[in-house]
């Protein structure tokens, strides 16, 4: 299921298995200056989704930071996944 707008999320039934994915890569967040210098680090803040992934460029623009949200019962599976561990630092 692909949503046309974020407001469509309110109409998703609770029985639907949903994983959110968003990428803010290549957005020029580190070039923004509000008058008190450019940001040292950009993060996505609080995300209340049970299952989701947010991708952002790192401060130098040569790597990607991934923020994952999940239910408590899913954390051990995520932590033990060999593919995840191969890319995590």
Could you give a short description of this structure?
This protein is of the alpha+beta class. The chain has a domain of 59 residues.
Question: Key terms for this structure?
Answer:
2 helices; single chain; 18% strand; 89 residues; alpha+beta; CAT-like_dom_sf; globular; EC 2.3.1.-
Please state the CA-atom Rg, rounded to the nearest Å.
16 Å
Uncertain runs with pLDDT below 50, 5 residues or more? none
- For the secondary structure, the number of strands is 3
On the 0 to 100 scale, the average pLDDT is 84
* Main sheet properties: 3 strands, mixed
Query: How many alpha or pi helices?
Result: 2
In N-to-C order, the SSE pattern is EEEHH
Gap from first CA to last CA: 32 Å
Strand percentage = 15-25%
- Shape descriptor reads globular
- Largest beta sheet: strand ordering: 1-2-3
What percentage of residues falls in helices of 4 or more residues? 10-25%
Structural class: alpha+beta
Enzyme class: transferase
Protein name: Transferase
GO molecular function: acyltransferase activity
Pfam families: Transferase (PF02458)
Task: Write a structural description.
This is Transferase. This protein has 89 residues and is α+β, with helices and mostly antiparallel strands. The protein has a domain at 18-27 and 41-89. Helices cover 13% and strands 18% of the residues. It contains 2 helices and 3 strands; from the N terminus they run E-E-E-H-H. A 3-stranded mixed sheet has the order 1-2-3, with no helix packed on it.
């Amino acid at each position: 299921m692909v949503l046309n707008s974020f407001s469509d999320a309110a109409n998703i039934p609770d029985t639907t298995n949903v994983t959110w994915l968003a990428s803010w890569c290549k957005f020029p967040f580190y070039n923004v200056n509000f008058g008190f210098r450019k940001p040292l680090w950009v993060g996505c803040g609080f995300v209340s989704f049970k299952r989701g992934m947010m991708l952002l460029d790192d401060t130098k623009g040569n790597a990607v930071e991934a923020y994952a949200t999940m239910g408590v019962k899913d954390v051990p599976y995520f932590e033990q996944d060999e593919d995840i561990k191969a890319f995590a630092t």
